[in-house]
Design brief:
Elements (H helix, E strand, L loop, with lengths): L5 E7 L4 E4 L5 E14 L5 E13 H10 L5 E14 L5 E14 L13 E4 L4 H20 L15
Helix pairs in contact: 1-2
Length: 161
């Protein structure tokens, strides 16, 4: 049995790039940064950052390009793939990337918002509904910041149920 599955949660390092293949299929590429905190051999705290290349095809790629921006948090689920090609000088180049099957949008980066909105977007026909849910979730999060709750204690006898 073989398994090629990757789950990466991180922040976008740049705005997603949406392009079209000669066949007309849309492809979106972006990068996620993840942090690692550990100890070195001397016991000192060590922090490092890893950058992961992500590729999303079709409607999934279009939604990523539409809703995610630099600094946004996202979870990418997919398979790891390494491509190779020769450049003009005959040098062999390699690129390892995650081909996304599912992207889950996290809280928006860069804002002062303490609330988080998330939506899961899969590479299937339900992506339009997921995108709509992502918009609704972000509107709900923004509306939640404007709600003013009463300062008085609530009497349980006043609750109608």
């Amino acid at each position: 049995m073989f398994l090629n599955k990757a789950f990466i949660i991180g922040n976008l390092t740049r705005d997603p790039e949406l392009k079209a293949l000669p066949s007309g299929t849309k492809v979106c590429s972006f990068s996620l940064a993840t942090n690692y905190v550990g100890k070195d051999k001397d016991g000192n705290r060590k922090e490092s950052v890893d950058y992961h290349n992500i590729v999303a095809f079709g409607r999934l790629g279009e939604l990523v390009a539409q809703y995610l921006k630099k600094g946004s948090q996202a979870l990418a689920e997919g398979r790891i793939q390494t491509r190779s090609w020769d450049d003009k000088d005959g040098k062999k180049n390699y690129r390892t990337e995650i081909v996304a099957d599912n992207i889950q949008f996290g809280s928006r980066g860069g804002g002062g918002s303490s609330g988080s909105a998330s939506a899961s977007v899969k590479g299937d026909k339900s992506t339009a509904d997921a995108a709509s849910n992502a918009e609704d979730a972000s509107k709900d999060a923004a509306a939640g910041e404007a709600i003013e709750y009463p300062k008085d204690d609530i009497n349980p006898d006043d609750i109608p149920f």
